[in-house]
């Protein structure tokens, strides 16, 4: 599927901003320092790349546009791309379910790049099965406010965000574990909210955090959407999150593959470039095929999402598996091809290799996504 002129122009814009603001040396510097690149984020916001087609009246951004931005960032400033996956999800939730006041107070500033949002769902005892295992509770007070207590973990960007979207159980689960969960908008500086940064092996330029809520009180206006149906509301955004994760993984694959091809052309051994060796050519050719196959699925899934086709969920699931597989393949082959140079922190391959592993299990494990494909595309019995 060929890219539209609008998408191609958007891709060129992202490349220009990254080239002007965050060259590879700067990306490595921020990765080593484990710092968020505020200047790059501000440049993207100034160019309208946080907002895209979205607005505070509830219009959503184009799935195609988000995928283009995230692929380009995934191939360069990967941690920034990971942060934007969360931002785009938060924007989508507020567009769909935010009150008029929430859209004015929170959504409008987010669209302009004034602050960031973190999405606090995962808990220590629950990853894939988080709804059934959710221990965070929100209790209504006599004055209509809510008191939230619990622990969230693996929360991206919680250390320096302005708001958190927190899911908490407000009533016992009924026939379905996903009912009785409500979504809340919580200020980062709320009393009783404590954030600690976890030491992770990858995605260093955006924090990964544990969030502890100890009787954090928020007003009645903090509820996002319908009380007791917060998890169902989140499920409605999962296609977009999976698609955006796939786009970042595709970018990682492309960035690593480009570096490997360049090295293969430059590196000399036995009187010629190592790119002339058949075994290495085959690996690079397979990587190119995997990248283009993943891009084709992402483009089909994005187009189906925008049309509202029923096929979007399966295509998105396939795109996520294809892109994460392409990323792990391209980065593993790249490390093998570069040899000792791949281990050097002066180059980008080791960072791509580390960062790619995130999308084998986030936002949902590839195994669980394969279960979904088996059930919804192949018509096989549910496996979990």
From TrEMBL:
This is Acyl-CoA dehydrogenase. It holds the Pfam family Acyl-CoA_dh_1. Keywords: FAD, Flavoprotein, Oxidoreductase. Residues 228-376 form the Acyl-CoA dehydrogenase/oxidase C-terminal domain. Belongs to the acyl-CoA dehydrogenase family. Residues 118-216 form the Acyl-CoA oxidase/dehydrogenase middle domain. Residues 5-113 form the Acyl-CoA dehydrogenase/oxidase N-terminal domain. The keyword Flavoprotein applies. Its cofactor is FAD.
